[in-house]
Amino acid sequence: MVEIFWYITASLLAGVGTGLVGLSAATVMVPILIVLCPSFAGETGAYQATAIALASDILGSAVTSATYIRHKNIDLRRGWIMLVCIIGMCTLGSFAAWKAGNVVLGGFTLFLTFCIGIRFLVKPSTERTDTESKGAKLDGKGVAVSLFFGLTIGFGTGFVGSGGGMMMLVVFTAFLGMELKAAVGTSTFIMTFTALIASVSHILIHPAILLERWPVLLLCMTVATAASLISARFANRVDSRTVGLVTGGLLTVLGGALILLHYWEAIKAVPVLRGVLACTLEFLEYIVPAAILLLCLHHFFNIPSHVFRKLLHLAAFTCLVEMMWAAEAWYQASLTAVLFAAVVYPILRALENRTWFSGLFVQKGPGEVKKSLLLLFFMDAALVAVCWGGFGLPWVAATAILMWGTGDGAAALVGHRFGKHHVALPLADPRKTWEGTGAMALVSTTIGTAAMLILTAMPWHQCLLFALATSVPGAYTELITRNGNDTVTVPVVDAVVLLALVLLTAN
Question: Which of 132, 353, 461, 486 could bond 481 through an S-S bridge, CB–CB 3.0 to 4.6 Å?
């Protein structure tokens, strides 16, 4: 039953990838079948998985290309040379694959899938400004590009059993100037023939391969075809930008997951990577339920925007402490923070111009959310490296972040509701109030004391003294910091004060 679940999951993901972006079914199905299905772990497991994936590609690519043809999203004037070269070399690659056995599984394609996903998140629209691009004939450069990539992609598709769709998508959009929908339609049209040829070649080489697995083949083909048809219809009914965003999200998540799946054993063998993965999983276990809860609150309850904004901040800074808690070493926590920022940043950049995005995340100005995210996670990485890596005191970084996060939230909420007396101190922001500043100092002191009582062996009176001595300069730093940079300045000041207090008391 477990294997059946993975058969359906692999086929479903493969079909969506084919219908939406022209992704070869083998790119998704082969790693899942080999890694997660014990029955494919034998000597011929990779070859069997590839044969099943290619066979599933036939109908999936056929219904996908038919859908794109009906919507006139196909451009064979610039794709015919690729078609001829790929079909010719695909057969040769298929025979070479049998000699290679399980050695090659298309690892390069997985990284390509991930990178293309990031690319479409950053720039979701591939619409060209010139109206004559669609259906334009190839020039000399286009012919050379088509010949080169057609020959290499054709052989690679037959040899590895995957990668053809992604490589064609890159060539058609980046080198031949096709719009995304036309590129997908043309690539799936070509894949229909390559999948047929490669599948037949595999059967002729070793007929028992598919005969032994005919129930799996039938199930995978049915699910993949249905998913391809539905996703292709969706892609042709929405605008190119939406297709690009959905494409980017799908390929980024899928590529990342497949990379982990494909190199799982190698990752587990490297302590740094294993630690980063553990931190990431711990982070996801925390942030996903938190995000769902916040979205439910936002949807069903009329929460004031400034309150919802601080709830988002609460989820963000507490997840940093969660990652530190999961890490075995400081560099694992720092790398996880940097990795998360690097992955999420292009997603936020792609979405920030959407009206619903600014409303949902209570964005005060263009680019505020992505800026705050970068500042928050890079600040966390730096604090962890200094406090934990440099001084061996991870609790200092955790306490500084908690004191800033809770104190800043209290200052905003109390200042908004009760703030009447504006602060007139040197360099202070005149919009800040004594009520908000007092709330920040009080909450920071309380949370800091509690954190140190839990994370250290210091007596309560020392914890309270350290928290008081830290909250005052932290509150003043918040007063004089503008443009949202308190995400960095306040926790850094808090950490510096705590480190100084520890060093002074140690002597």
Answer: 486
